[in-house]
Protein backbone atom coordinates (compact mmCIF):
# COMPACT_ATOMS: atom_id res chain seq x y z
CA UNK A 1 0.00 0.00 0.00
CA UNK A 2 1.16 3.51 -0.77
CA UNK A 3 -0.01 6.63 1.01
CA UNK A 4 0.41 9.50 -1.42
CA UNK A 5 0.84 12.82 0.39
CA UNK A 6 -0.35 16.13 -1.08
CA UNK A 7 2.28 18.26 -2.83
CA UNK A 8 2.21 20.82 -0.02
CA UNK A 9 1.93 18.39 2.90
CA UNK A 10 3.96 19.36 5.96
CA UNK A 11 6.64 17.42 7.83
CA UNK A 12 4.24 17.14 10.80
CA UNK A 13 1.52 15.62 8.59
CA UNK A 14 3.98 13.12 7.12
CA UNK A 15 5.21 12.31 10.65
CA UNK A 16 1.66 11.65 11.84
CA UNK A 17 1.05 9.23 8.95
CA UNK A 18 4.31 7.39 9.71
CA UNK A 19 3.36 7.09 13.38
CA UNK A 20 -0.11 5.75 12.52
CA UNK A 21 1.43 3.07 10.25
CA UNK A 22 3.74 2.01 13.08
CA UNK A 23 0.84 1.86 15.54
CA UNK A 24 -0.91 -0.54 13.14
CA UNK A 25 2.13 -2.84 13.32
CA UNK A 26 3.41 -2.30 9.75
CA UNK A 27 6.67 -0.72 8.54
CA UNK A 28 6.53 2.75 6.94
CA UNK A 29 9.14 3.70 4.31
CA UNK A 30 8.81 7.40 3.46
CA UNK A 31 10.04 8.20 -0.05
CA UNK A 32 10.82 11.87 -0.56
CA UNK A 33 10.36 12.57 -4.28
CA UNK A 34 11.06 15.72 -6.25
CA UNK A 35 7.38 16.69 -6.27
CA UNK A 36 5.83 14.92 -3.34
CA UNK A 37 6.33 12.41 -0.57
CA UNK A 38 4.79 8.98 -0.53
CA UNK A 39 4.82 6.54 2.37
CA UNK A 40 5.17 2.93 1.30
CA UNK A 41 3.65 0.54 3.84
CA UNK A 42 5.24 -2.91 3.96
CA UNK A 43 5.56 -5.80 6.39
CA UNK A 44 2.47 -6.98 8.28
CA UNK A 45 -0.15 -4.87 6.51
CA UNK A 46 -3.32 -6.86 7.30
CA UNK A 47 -4.20 -4.65 10.27
CA UNK A 48 -3.65 -1.47 8.27
CA UNK A 49 -6.98 -0.06 7.21
CA UNK A 50 -6.63 2.36 4.26
CA UNK A 51 -9.76 4.22 5.39
CA UNK A 52 -8.06 5.51 8.53
CA UNK A 53 -5.46 7.25 6.40
CA UNK A 54 -7.66 8.85 3.75
CA UNK A 55 -9.04 11.34 6.26
CA UNK A 56 -5.69 12.33 7.72
CA UNK A 57 -4.47 15.88 7.01
CA UNK A 58 -2.01 16.08 4.09
CA UNK A 59 -3.04 12.73 2.57
CA UNK A 60 -4.10 12.85 -1.07
CA UNK A 61 -4.91 9.21 -1.80
CA UNK A 62 -4.12 5.59 -1.06
CA UNK A 63 -3.00 3.26 -3.83
CA UNK A 64 -1.79 -0.29 -3.87
CA UNK A 65 1.47 -1.57 -5.36
CA UNK A 66 0.73 -4.50 -7.63
CA UNK A 67 4.36 -5.66 -7.96
CA UNK A 68 5.60 -8.09 -5.29
CA UNK A 69 8.75 -5.97 -4.96
CA UNK A 70 7.17 -3.00 -3.21
CA UNK A 71 10.04 -0.65 -2.39
CA UNK A 72 12.02 -1.52 -5.52
CA UNK A 73 9.08 -0.84 -7.81
CA UNK A 74 8.67 2.16 -10.06
CA UNK A 75 5.07 2.37 -8.79
CA UNK A 76 6.26 3.28 -5.28
CA UNK A 77 8.98 5.61 -6.51
CA UNK A 78 8.37 7.22 -9.92
CA UNK A 79 11.63 9.24 -9.91
CA UNK A 80 14.94 7.54 -10.76
CA UNK A 81 17.06 6.81 -7.71
CA UNK A 82 20.38 8.62 -8.01
CA UNK A 83 23.12 7.33 -5.74
CA UNK A 84 25.61 10.02 -4.80
CA UNK A 85 29.16 9.20 -3.89
CA UNK A 86 31.68 11.97 -3.45
CA UNK A 87 31.82 13.50 -6.97
CA UNK A 88 30.04 10.62 -8.74
CA UNK A 89 26.33 10.10 -9.30
CA UNK A 90 25.01 6.67 -10.25
CA UNK A 91 21.67 6.78 -12.04
CA UNK A 92 21.93 10.34 -13.36
CA UNK A 93 22.51 11.62 -16.90
CA UNK A 94 26.25 10.97 -16.72
CA UNK A 95 27.18 7.32 -17.23
CA UNK A 96 29.31 5.66 -14.58
CA UNK A 97 32.04 3.19 -15.48
CA UNK A 98 33.42 0.65 -13.00
CA UNK A 99 36.58 -0.99 -14.30
CA UNK A 100 39.50 -3.03 -13.07
CA UNK A 101 40.72 -6.58 -12.77
CA UNK A 102 38.54 -9.49 -11.79
CA UNK A 103 40.83 -10.11 -8.78
CA UNK A 104 43.33 -8.01 -6.93
CA UNK A 105 46.47 -10.08 -7.55
CA UNK A 106 49.29 -7.81 -6.37
CA UNK A 107 49.96 -4.20 -5.52
CA UNK A 108 51.68 -3.51 -8.83
CA UNK A 109 48.95 -5.20 -10.90
CA UNK A 110 46.21 -3.19 -9.22
CA UNK A 111 47.99 0.17 -9.25
CA UNK A 112 48.93 -0.22 -12.91
CA UNK A 113 45.34 -1.07 -13.81
CA UNK A 114 43.93 1.73 -11.65
CA UNK A 115 46.18 4.25 -13.39
CA UNK A 116 45.11 3.02 -16.84
CA UNK A 117 41.36 2.98 -16.14
CA UNK A 118 41.49 6.42 -14.52
CA UNK A 119 43.30 7.85 -17.56
CA UNK A 120 40.67 6.33 -19.83
CA UNK A 121 37.85 8.00 -17.86
CA UNK A 122 36.56 5.34 -15.44
CA UNK A 123 34.98 6.56 -12.19
CA UNK A 124 35.12 3.49 -10.00
CA UNK A 125 37.84 0.85 -9.59
CA UNK A 126 36.74 -2.75 -9.29
CA UNK A 127 38.74 -5.71 -8.01
CA UNK A 128 37.83 -8.78 -5.99
CA UNK A 129 39.67 -9.43 -2.73
CA UNK A 130 37.33 -12.28 -1.76
CA UNK A 131 36.59 -14.42 -4.80
CA UNK A 132 33.75 -16.92 -5.16
CA UNK A 133 35.43 -19.59 -7.32
CA UNK A 134 33.85 -22.73 -8.74
CA UNK A 135 36.86 -24.74 -7.57
CA UNK A 136 38.25 -24.66 -4.03
CA UNK A 137 41.70 -25.09 -5.60
CA UNK A 138 41.50 -21.88 -7.67
CA UNK A 139 42.84 -18.53 -6.41
CA UNK A 140 40.46 -17.36 -3.67
CA UNK A 141 41.60 -13.73 -3.54
CA UNK A 142 44.06 -11.80 -1.38
CA UNK A 143 41.54 -11.09 1.40
CA UNK A 144 42.32 -8.20 3.74
CA UNK A 145 45.60 -7.45 1.96
CA UNK A 146 43.59 -7.00 -1.25
CA UNK A 147 41.30 -4.50 0.47
CA UNK A 148 44.33 -2.54 1.66
CA UNK A 149 45.72 -2.40 -1.86
CA UNK A 150 42.35 -1.19 -3.18
CA UNK A 151 42.33 1.55 -0.54
CA UNK A 152 45.82 2.64 -1.59
CA UNK A 153 44.72 2.82 -5.24
CA UNK A 154 41.72 4.93 -4.22
CA UNK A 155 43.99 7.44 -2.49
CA UNK A 156 46.53 7.51 -5.30
CA UNK A 157 44.16 7.86 -8.24
CA UNK A 158 41.05 9.44 -6.73
CA UNK A 159 38.81 6.56 -7.77
CA UNK A 160 36.00 5.06 -5.71
CA UNK A 161 36.20 1.33 -5.13
CA UNK A 162 33.76 -1.54 -5.48
CA UNK A 163 34.54 -5.01 -4.22
CA UNK A 164 32.65 -8.19 -3.48
CA UNK A 165 31.53 -9.32 -0.04
CA UNK A 166 30.69 -13.02 0.25
CA UNK A 167 29.56 -13.57 3.85
CA UNK A 168 27.49 -11.66 6.42
CA UNK A 169 30.44 -11.87 8.85
CA UNK A 170 32.72 -10.04 6.41
CA UNK A 171 30.30 -7.16 5.76
CA UNK A 172 31.69 -4.77 8.45
CA UNK A 173 35.28 -5.34 7.32
CA UNK A 174 34.58 -4.92 3.59
CA UNK A 175 32.34 -1.91 4.26
CA UNK A 176 35.24 -0.24 6.03
CA UNK A 177 37.27 -0.25 2.79
CA UNK A 178 34.77 -0.26 -0.07
CA UNK A 179 32.70 2.64 -1.37
CA UNK A 180 30.26 0.14 -2.91
CA UNK A 181 29.67 -3.44 -1.77
CA UNK A 182 29.19 -5.97 -4.55
CA UNK A 183 26.95 -8.99 -4.11
CA UNK A 184 27.99 -11.55 -6.71
CA UNK A 185 25.81 -13.67 -8.96
CA UNK A 186 26.34 -16.73 -6.77
CA UNK A 187 24.92 -14.86 -3.77
CA UNK A 188 21.94 -13.03 -5.28
CA UNK A 189 19.59 -15.12 -3.18
CA UNK A 190 21.77 -15.50 -0.10
CA UNK A 191 19.20 -13.98 2.21
CA UNK A 192 21.47 -13.84 5.25
CA UNK A 193 23.91 -11.75 3.25
CA UNK A 194 21.12 -9.54 1.85
CA UNK A 195 19.91 -8.89 5.42
CA UNK A 196 23.44 -7.98 6.46
CA UNK A 197 24.02 -5.47 3.65
CA UNK A 198 20.55 -4.02 4.27
CA UNK A 199 21.79 -2.83 7.63
CA UNK A 200 24.96 -0.99 6.52
CA UNK A 201 25.28 2.53 5.22
CA UNK A 202 27.10 1.65 2.00
CA UNK A 203 25.65 1.44 -1.49
CA UNK A 204 25.26 -2.14 -2.69
CA UNK A 205 25.53 -3.41 -6.25
CA UNK A 206 23.44 -6.55 -6.55
CA UNK A 207 24.35 -8.78 -9.48
CA UNK A 208 21.72 -10.91 -11.15
CA UNK A 209 22.12 -14.59 -10.36
CA UNK A 210 22.96 -16.77 -13.33
CA UNK A 211 19.61 -18.55 -12.82
CA UNK A 212 17.60 -15.59 -11.48
CA UNK A 213 14.62 -14.12 -13.24
CA UNK A 214 14.28 -10.34 -13.26
CA UNK A 215 11.57 -10.65 -10.64
CA UNK A 216 13.82 -12.72 -8.39
CA UNK A 217 16.56 -10.11 -8.75
CA UNK A 218 14.11 -7.36 -7.78
CA UNK A 219 12.86 -9.40 -4.81
CA UNK A 220 16.47 -9.72 -3.64
CA UNK A 221 16.88 -5.95 -3.98
CA UNK A 222 13.71 -5.66 -1.90
CA UNK A 223 15.42 -7.46 1.01
CA UNK A 224 18.14 -4.78 1.08
CA UNK A 225 15.67 -1.90 0.76
CA UNK A 226 13.36 -3.37 3.42
CA UNK A 227 16.39 -3.53 5.73
CA UNK A 228 16.67 0.25 5.44
CA UNK A 229 19.49 0.57 2.90
CA UNK A 230 17.97 2.42 -0.06
CA UNK A 231 21.19 2.72 -2.05
CA UNK A 232 20.92 -0.36 -4.26
CA UNK A 233 22.26 -0.73 -7.81
CA UNK A 234 21.11 -3.58 -10.06
CA UNK A 235 23.56 -5.33 -12.38
CA UNK A 236 22.79 -7.45 -15.44
CA UNK A 237 25.73 -9.84 -15.88
CA UNK A 238 24.30 -12.55 -18.08
CA UNK A 239 22.32 -15.69 -17.38
CA UNK A 240 22.99 -19.33 -18.09
CA UNK A 241 21.47 -20.73 -21.26
CA UNK A 242 22.15 -23.61 -23.66
CA UNK A 243 24.51 -21.43 -25.72
CA UNK A 244 28.12 -22.64 -25.63
CA UNK A 245 30.02 -19.99 -27.58
CA UNK A 246 29.66 -17.56 -24.69
CA UNK A 247 30.16 -18.07 -20.96
CA UNK A 248 26.74 -16.54 -20.23
CA UNK A 249 23.98 -15.02 -22.32
CA UNK A 250 24.02 -11.28 -21.74
CA UNK A 251 20.34 -10.48 -21.30
CA UNK A 252 20.02 -7.11 -22.96
CA UNK A 253 16.23 -7.22 -22.44
CA UNK A 254 16.85 -6.82 -18.72
CA UNK A 255 18.37 -3.37 -19.13
CA UNK A 256 15.32 -1.41 -20.32
CA UNK A 257 12.90 -3.69 -18.50
CA UNK A 258 14.56 -3.31 -15.10
CA UNK A 259 14.57 0.46 -15.66
CA UNK A 260 10.85 0.28 -16.37
CA UNK A 261 9.99 -1.96 -13.42
CA UNK A 262 12.24 -0.24 -10.91
CA UNK A 263 13.67 3.17 -10.02
CA UNK A 264 17.05 1.68 -9.11
CA UNK A 265 20.11 2.33 -11.30
CA UNK A 266 21.06 -0.48 -13.71
CA UNK A 267 24.66 -1.34 -14.58
CA UNK A 268 25.52 -3.63 -17.50
CA UNK A 269 28.42 -6.06 -17.14
CA UNK A 270 29.30 -7.36 -20.60
CA UNK A 271 32.54 -8.91 -19.29
CA UNK A 272 30.75 -11.64 -17.32
CA UNK A 273 27.78 -11.40 -19.70
CA UNK A 274 29.88 -12.70 -22.57
CA UNK A 275 33.01 -14.24 -21.05
CA UNK A 276 34.98 -13.19 -24.17
CA UNK A 277 37.09 -10.07 -24.53
CA UNK A 278 36.53 -9.95 -28.29
CA UNK A 279 32.83 -9.11 -27.96
CA UNK A 280 32.90 -7.10 -24.73
CA UNK A 281 33.12 -3.73 -26.52
CA UNK A 282 30.20 -4.52 -28.84
CA UNK A 283 28.00 -5.54 -25.92
CA UNK A 284 29.13 -2.54 -23.88
CA UNK A 285 27.91 -0.31 -26.72
CA UNK A 286 24.64 -2.27 -26.77
CA UNK A 287 24.20 -1.93 -23.00
CA UNK A 288 24.59 1.83 -23.15
CA UNK A 289 22.27 2.06 -26.15
CA UNK A 290 19.68 0.01 -24.23
CA UNK A 291 19.67 2.57 -21.41
CA UNK A 292 22.11 1.26 -18.80
CA UNK A 293 23.23 3.83 -16.24
CA UNK A 294 26.78 2.56 -16.51
CA UNK A 295 29.06 -0.37 -17.13
CA UNK A 296 31.26 -2.79 -15.26
CA UNK A 297 34.27 -3.86 -17.32
CA UNK A 298 37.14 -6.18 -16.41
CA UNK A 299 40.57 -4.82 -17.36
CA UNK A 300 43.94 -6.51 -16.80
CA UNK A 301 47.43 -5.39 -17.86
CA UNK A 302 48.25 -8.92 -18.94
CA UNK A 303 45.08 -11.01 -19.39
CA UNK A 304 47.01 -14.15 -20.38
CA UNK A 305 48.51 -14.24 -16.88
CA UNK A 306 45.37 -13.25 -14.95
CA UNK A 307 44.51 -15.43 -11.94
CA UNK A 308 40.79 -15.17 -12.77
CA UNK A 309 38.67 -14.23 -15.78
CA UNK A 310 41.60 -13.52 -18.14
CA UNK A 311 39.62 -14.60 -21.25
CA UNK A 312 37.09 -11.80 -20.72
CA UNK A 313 39.52 -9.09 -19.58
CA UNK A 314 40.46 -6.17 -21.81
CA UNK A 315 43.97 -4.80 -22.06
CA UNK A 316 44.13 -1.14 -21.00
CA UNK A 317 44.43 0.16 -24.56
CA UNK A 318 41.32 -1.70 -25.70
CA UNK A 319 39.50 -0.41 -22.64
CA UNK A 320 40.42 3.17 -23.59
CA UNK A 321 39.04 2.45 -27.04
CA UNK A 322 35.80 1.09 -25.53
CA UNK A 323 35.45 4.27 -23.50
CA UNK A 324 35.75 6.49 -26.56
CA UNK A 325 33.15 4.40 -28.36
CA UNK A 326 30.61 4.37 -25.54
CA UNK A 327 30.99 8.10 -25.08
CA UNK A 328 29.62 8.52 -28.60
CA UNK A 329 26.81 6.01 -27.99
CA UNK A 330 25.96 7.78 -24.72
CA UNK A 331 25.55 11.08 -26.55
CA UNK A 332 23.27 9.41 -29.10
CA UNK A 333 20.90 8.37 -26.29
CA UNK A 334 21.01 11.71 -24.42
CA UNK A 335 23.51 10.61 -21.81
CA UNK A 336 27.09 11.77 -21.31
CA UNK A 337 30.52 10.50 -20.36
CA UNK A 338 32.47 13.65 -19.71
CA UNK A 339 35.52 11.98 -18.15
CA UNK A 340 36.67 10.43 -21.42
CA UNK A 341 39.49 12.44 -23.00
CA UNK A 342 38.84 13.65 -26.53
CA UNK A 343 41.75 12.01 -28.30
CA UNK A 344 41.57 10.72 -31.82
CA UNK A 345 42.06 6.93 -31.78
CA UNK A 346 45.09 7.17 -34.12
CA UNK A 347 46.85 9.39 -31.57
CA UNK A 348 46.72 6.71 -28.91
CA UNK A 349 49.92 4.65 -28.70
C1 LIG B 1 33.06 -10.58 -10.62
O1 LIG B 1 32.54 -9.45 -10.70
O2 LIG B 1 34.26 -10.80 -10.78
C2 LIG B 1 32.17 -11.75 -10.41
C3 LIG B 1 32.56 -12.82 -9.72
O3 LIG B 1 30.99 -11.58 -11.02
P1 LIG B 1 29.67 -12.49 -10.99
O4 LIG B 1 29.27 -12.55 -9.55
O5 LIG B 1 28.72 -11.71 -11.85
O6 LIG B 1 30.03 -13.82 -11.57
MN1 LIG C 1 35.29 -11.73 -12.73
Structural account:
This protein is an alpha/beta fold and 349 residues long. It contains eleven helices and 14 strands. The protein has helices spanning 11-23, 50-54, 107-120, 144-157, 171-177, 191-198, 214-226, 254-261, 270-274, 277-289, 316-332; strands at 2-5, 27-32, 37-42, 59-63, 83-85, 88-90, 96-100, 124-126, 160-164, 180-183, 204-207, 232-236, 266-268, 294-298. An eight-stranded parallel barrel has the order 7-8-9-10-11-12-13-14, surrounded by seven helices. α5 (171-177) links the parallel β9 (160-164) and β10 (180-183). The longest helix is centred in the last third of the chain and has 17 residues, at 316-332. It is globular, with a radius of gyration of 21 Å. The protein binds phosphoenolpyruvate (PEP) and manganese (II) ion. Manganese (II) ion is lined by residues 102, 272, 298, 308-309.
CATH 4th-level superfamily of the largest domain: Aldolase class I
- Count of spatially separate domains: 2
- Give the termini distance in whole angstroms: 58 Å
Q: What characterizes the major β-sheet?
A: 8 strands, parallel, barrel
Count of separate DSSP helical elements: 11
CATH architecture of the largest domain: Alpha-Beta Barrel
CATH fold category name of the largest domain: TIM Barrel
Unreliable stretches: none
What gross morphology would you assign?
globular
What class would the helix/strand composition place it in? alpha/beta
Which strand order spans the largest sheet, edge to edge or round the barrel?
7-8-9-10-11-12-13-14
- Which compounds are bound in this model? phosphoenolpyruvate, manganese (II) ion
The helix content, as a percent range, equals 25-40%
Task: Name the beta content range.
Answer: 15-25%
Radius of gyration: 21 Å
Helix and strand run = EHEEHEEEEHEHEHEHEHEHEHHEH
State mean pLDDT (0 to 100 scale): 96
Tally the beta strands.
14
What is the class of the largest domain in the CATH system? Answer: Alpha Beta
